[in-house]
Every structure is written in structure tokens, then in C-alpha cells.
Amino acid sequence: MLIYNLRMVEFFRLLRKTTERVLLIVLCSQAYPELIKAEDWPQWRGKERLGIWNETDILDRFPSEGLSVRWRTPVGSGFSGPAVSEGRVFLLDYLENKESDFMEGTERLLCIDQSTGKILWTHEWKTNYRKLMASYATGPRATPTVDGKRVYVVGATGILRCLDVKTSKLLWEKNYVRDFNTRLPTWGVVSAPLVDGNRLICIVGGKPNAKVMAFDKFTGEELWRALSSDWEMGYAQPIIFHAGGVPQLIIWHPKALTSLNPLTGDIYWEQPFEVPFGMTVATPVKSDSYLLVSQFYGGSMMMKLGSNKPTAKMLWKGKSRSELPDKTEGLHTLLTTPIIEGNYIYGICSYGQLRCLRIRDGVRVWQSLQMTDFARWAAAFLVRNGDRYFINNDKGDLIIARFGPKGYVEVDRTKIIEPTSNGSYGKSRFSRMVNWSHPAYANRHIFARNDHEI
Questions:
Q1: How do 150-154 and 440-442 pair as beta strands?
Q2: How many other C-beta atoms are found inside a 10 Å radius of the C-beta of residue 286?
Q3: 3-state secondary structure of 14
Q4: pTM above 0.85?
Q5: How many angstroms separate the CA atoms of 199 and 239, rounded?
Q6: Tens of pLDDT along 328-337?
Q7: Which of 212, 211, 213, 214 lies closest to 229 in space, CA to CA?
Q8: Which of 93, 89, 188, 180 is nearest to 132 (CA)?
Q9: Do 244 and 255 touch, CB atoms closer than 8 A?
Q10: What is residue 425's predicted lDDT score, i.e. its pLDDT?
């Protein structure tokens, strides 16, 4: 009886302390609401693929000694960025079979504990990169897409898989080449799956008329297919914007910019826009009723979206068909998705020039070479946080900056990760290694990867 009474005393003491802690948490959350506004980064470019980091109370400048590293975990190679959801980090990588002469290896999905960097599980499959350009056949490209209990991944050769996030159990799979007669693009499959309601929307490049496909996200059953695959599938990410009173699925492919009904795959509108070599890489960007895409050789194109129904008209597009910096006036981006702030567009042009254009006519306002090196295919990934941007450039720097019609204002920069990818293939490109993997910003951390570690 004495032991029982002591345990009851301990019980009430613990209950009192627990109650005090709960009250303290409630009071803190009321006084400092930003303390509980943690946010995941569950897919390419974060929530809704908008490249916006909504968390508050983030540092204004970097410590003089740089950011502290919470953990490092060895990984294989690849361009796929990390996705972060409910305490887990998901990353695709590639382990080359060095004994094979046929570009064979293993693609993997890693599930990593967000707090410790410990690998919780891996899921892998055999593949080969013989049909890809050898110079960049170093790993998966597409960022995982996390949706509640499921994570969706697609490898560089079009192997699409749906897995249970906790157990790694394979729920269903598709093989683009085997199941849909897809012809792989030169640089591999890049487009990450997009979840919309009960649909999983993918750029597949299948035949017949299956460039874009929607699957039941639970079972993998085909729901609809759209657009001809008589030409390349390209490398753009599918994205949904609300305009004209409806959600519009925007597909940028090498022949046109197309708006589809995400429920059925029916076409709302389409604007022809030829893209050489299928290089539709940067993600389409919307601001109010403006919709922008930008390509390496043909420059940018601006659409004006209808306000009452799903229509669009072209406002302007670039006239140059050269990417050479002294022959371009507008914005010829490749890897970097541009941003729109107010009445101006900001983006990285063909040789690393940061340019500002007027939104109404595409006329250049200013140019800066401060953000990254002057080199063909130079890149940086721009993520908005409040009234400033966090920028991850291809040199492995993390930059805090602001943009305005009067110029580029760099607040601070620090080294974040070593660039390890080959950027020197061909002439007039990099004489150094590059980092072309988009980081994740989640729960007041940045998660960055190269070909050796995350």
C-alpha cells in the first residue's frame, strides 16, 4: 500500500508538471505564433510547386563561421532534390555498377530521419542508362512527391513507383517504356509526379496520345491520357494554377504551352512555342493573370490568362534565336525557374546573367553578373521567404538577396555544399564542378545534396 501511495504521489507530481508545460506551450503559441508555423517541403519547389518558403523567424544574415551542420549522410549520385514530410526526408540516388560496361546500376529511394540523418529504409531497383546522354547519366532527376501515407518517385528511365512512407512497401508501379511505349528523352525523365485530389498526374511521353497521363493515386489505374507523343516529352514539371474560375493543369512541352482540365485531360487552350532539343526545363510561373515560360534558345513567352473562363492570349515572346549573351535582350533561362515580383521578371539568362525584364513587354531593365559565374547553363534556385529570397547557386553557395527594378541587392552569402556534378561537357561551359540539385527548406532547416552526401 505504501508503494501504491508513493506512485500516486509521483503520478500527481508528473501530472502537475505536464499541465504546466501544456499551459506554457499554449501561452507561447499565442504570444509567438511563428513558433508553431513549421512547414514541410513535400515535393519539387515545395508546397504547390511555387518556390515559396512560408516559415517565419528565419535568420537575417549568416553566422560568420557559416551555418552549423546538423547531420551529414552519405548518398549516391543524382540531380533529384530532397522532399521533406512529417519528420522524414526522401531522396533518390544512383549506385553505378562499375563492373558493367553497359551503364547499369541501381536507383534507390532513401527515407531518412529528419532529426538525425539516420537512414530509416531504402527501396531500390535495377536500371540502365544506355539510352541517356552518357555525360549526365549519373542518377535520377525528379524530386520525390510525398502525399500523406504515400511517396511517388520516378527514375531517369521512367520507372514510376508508389511506396508506403513508413514501411517502404511497394503499392504499385508503372514502367513508361514497357507499359506505354515511351521514347526516353536525351537527358532522361525529369518530371516529378503531381498529386491532384485522387489523381497522380505524370508527363509520360507514351503512345498513343499519352504525353500526359493521370493515374488513380491509390491503385495506379489509368484515368485519362492527353496530347500526342509524336514529338519529345520535354523536361518541364506539370503544375496546376487557378485561373479563369477553374484549376488549370499547365503542361509546357516542346511544341506548345498547353492548359488542360486536370479532371479529364481535355484541352482548355494551347499556344504554340517551339523549343529546340526539347529543352523545356524551367517550371512555368504565374503571377495574377500573367503566365511565363522561358527557354534557352528562344527566350521567354508571356501569356495573359482570362479572368472569367479558361482562356489565354500571348502578350509577347522573345525574338532572338541565339543564346549568346551579346545577342539576347530578354531572358533565355534553362535550369533556373524565373520569378515575378510586381511588374518585373527576374531570372538567370543563358550565361549566368541575372536579368530584370518588364512584365508588360519583356524589355530588359538591368543585368548583373554577381549571383553566379559567367558560364553557359549557369543556374541558381530562387526561393522566396517573406520580402527576400534564399538562393542556392551552382557553386554551392547559399545567398540571401532582394530584387527590385533598380537592381539586385545581395544581403549575405555562405558556402552550403560542395559542387560535385560534371559541368564541363562541351565548349564554353564550366571549367569546374557544379551543383544542379534544388534544396528543400523545411522546419527551419535547409536540406541540400550533392553526389556524395545530403
A1: unpaired
A2: 18
A3: helix
A4: yes
A5: 13
A6: 999 999 999 9
A7: 211
A8: 188
A9: no
A10: 53
